[in-house]
Amino acid sequence: PDLSVDLMTDRGVFSPDRVDPGTKLLLGELPVLPDGPVLDLGCGYGPIAVTLARCRPGQLIWAVDVSERAMELAQINLAANAPQGTPFEVGDPDLVPTDMSFAAIVSNPPIRVGKTVLHDMLDRWLPRLSPDSSAWLVVHRHLGADSLTTWLQGRGHVVERIRSRQGYRILKVTPGGPAS
């Protein structure tokens, strides 16, 4: 709530006119994250990655997306706003080293890609969390927050609803089950 930065956006990326209210809610609810690399999954133009970099200087931030324009903007925004010496990487998800694990995943996931793609994405990344780490997701109830919770629990993950406001659900997901 006390962070103000200028971010470059463009048409064709999610919420180009302002930081999405769900993203704002998520960022306001994040606890102090454990040390280690943090993943912004589906980073868009980078509001989550920039906030993480500003709040945790020196912590490695990975910001991944499949949109070339989103990655370009996230790179620009991190370069302009990350404190000096804060390491960050922006790129396609396939560029993340396969042996890298994360202290946390923070995401306003791209729900509109469809359930199959979203589920595949979460099955790919949740097992990459370090032991005792969690993913923090924001999903609107009208876009399937409750069905996503049920699916995650069915995969053996522990899901806590941390906050619910204006239809948004903040979910803390601790991996478990067959996908881990």
Overall structural class, as computed from helix and strand content, comes to alpha/beta
Summed over residues and divided by their number, the pLDDT gives a mean of 89
The dominant shape is globular
* Uncertain parts: none
Order of helices and strands: HEHEHEEHEHEE
Major β-sheet, in short? Answer: 7 strands, mixed
- The portion of residues forming beta strands comes to 25-35%
Radius of gyration: 15 Å
Portion in helices: 25-40%
Strands of the widest sheet, in order across it, are: 3-2-1-4-5-7-6
- Quickly count the helices: 5
Please provide the count of β strands: 7
| End-to-end separation | 34 Å
Description:
By secondary structure, this protein is of the alpha/beta class. It is 29% helix and 25% strand. It is built from five helices and seven strands; from the N terminus they run αβαβαββαβαββ. The chain has helices spanning 21-29, 47-55, 68-81, 115-125, 145-154, and strands spanning 38-41, 61-64, 88-91, 102-107, 129-140, 158-165, 168-174. It has a seven-stranded mixed β-sheet with strand order 3-2-1-4-5-7-6, with helices on both faces. α2 (47-55) runs parallel beside α3. The protein is globular and about 40 Å long. The model has no long low-confidence stretch (mean pLDDT 89).
